[in-house]
Write a structure and sequence with these properties.
heterodimer, A: 386 residues, mainly alpha, 2 domains, two-stranded antiparallel sheet, two-stranded antiparallel ribbon, B: 241 residues, alpha/beta, six-stranded mixed sheet, four-stranded antiparallel sheet, 9 helices, globular
Amino acid sequence: MSNFGTMYLYELRKIFGRKLTIIVLSLVTLIMIAMNIGEYVAGEKLINTKENDLSGREVNETLLNEMRLAVDPKIATMEDGETVSIGISVKDETYEPLMDYLYMLGGNFDKAYNMTEEKLYSTFDGVINTDIAESYLTENEKAYWAERRAENPDRLVYGKLRNGWGDSVTIMYVVSLLTLISVAATLSGVFSEETSLKTDALVFSSVNGRKKLVYAKILAGVSAGLAETLILLVACAGTEFAVSGFGGAETSVQFFVGPTAMDMKIGTAFMWYAFIMLIIGILLSVMAMCLSQVFRNSIAVVAVMMFMWLLSMFNIPERLDLLARIWNFFPVTFLGSWTFTDYHLVPFFGARLTIIEAAPIVYLCLSVVFIVIAKISYDKYQVKGR
Amino acid sequence: MELVLDRVTKQYNSKIAADRISVSLKPGVIGLLGANGAGKTTLMRMICGVLKPSGGTISFDGIDVSEESYRDALGYLPQDFGYYPSFTGRDFLMYMAALKGLPKSEAKRKTDELLKKVNLEQVAGKKIKSYSGGMKQRLGIAQAVLNDPKIIVLDEPTAGLDPKERVRFRNMIADLGKDSIVLLSTHIVSDVEHIADRILMMQDGRIIWDGTKDEVPEDLEHFYLSRFDDAAVEETEEANE
């Protein structure tokens, strides 16, 4: 094995040899599992075994009629004599999740019960049109979405609504938050500990300590960060799949994130989000190591990354255009259901990418920038900074 | 084989830590004596390339201190050297061997050989944090010579060692001096008295005396003390105590 391989393995040992790494990683993984399992234990999520009966069917008038026959509306008479549904009792559980979804979309039981195919898709169109209108899009972007929607008119494909794919997608932003905490704790010392442990003089007086080692450290840090991200992803999706199963991948993403012009199946959405999550893991790892090199102080790194965690609570209004467009890529909050209604586009070598398509490229480019900054700082610190 | 320092200077704002030091060092043990704050560590760090001189040049057989091949010939034990708490003694040496560019098979052979030489064979699998001060110091020496360096810089290597270990160390350092330039800094005269082929005395960033033990007209300790002013003498005595 070359020196690089040996250095890489020992750098990994340094990272995973720290008690803090094991403690923090165990805690965030437990939190992730507890959050998912807890919802079932507390009864906030129920498993409907009959859902699969409708899997793969398009939501149309026929299906809506079947649904109406499967539920009994509780009718109330208003002061003006009009009758409205104020609740339902379910006769056939197969249709319950569809009813729930229409309730969420319509806002009340009456609208949900009386939803027709035409009303459903016009409501959909209305929500999407409003979102696009309020997104401060350029004419080019508006034209892109008009063209795309004309090519693929909104059609909802029903499936298993309580499934691991959808539940994982809607909770993925928690994985990114926990990854932030995990890599901040475990990678903040990759460079700074050489100073605090007083090993830097040994490192910089060795033949490989000035050039090869920085890459071995970065590769080890990225590997560790990716491993942590993967563990959290498995903890998140694994528990969801274990409870809800793998069925329902073909269900329209709109059933989980609401009306969106970014039409895709929930299984595809999960793949995108899991892939982007891994890239975010790389970005956060590289960022933590870059800060570790620049500050040479682990606590300062953790402080900055916890500040990022606080920043995730802020939002920048769309009217601030460029700033909002940049802010929407904030890695800690990117993987929310809200991203499916962000219709900004990113030009890329003549193509126009949706922000979901652009995110991996943006994050990888940012990772390279952080690596370059870390390398420059490492080179400067070797002699001049000491 | 020659290590040449030409008008090497290090200045921190108004303080001059090394003042135009010019010296040529050849194989053998060179003892660098000086009170605390004399500039020994600054000089050694510059020789090891971890501190940039404000002026002057350092080269080994024409190779500048900043070059990779210079570091290839270097072994360094810093005054207050650190270690990785999660590493065992063997891990530490294997890691340092990789940093020094040794192939894995050679690294393993040298690690085993040095662990035996510094009497750490029995505890090689234990974590360094469980080592005593003397054991850590021995491990430090072992890492410094892993790559069979031509220049060996040992900054206060006997600090924390008991008398028996100190004698063993001296013998080891004397051996190293047969084929390498060994620069040994200390403020304890007896450390260099027995093994140094050449003695340099430093005060206020300058070399104030350069010669062999035979050139010393009296007992080395008295001669050494006589070179310094009263304040420096007191400081040295305190340190020796």
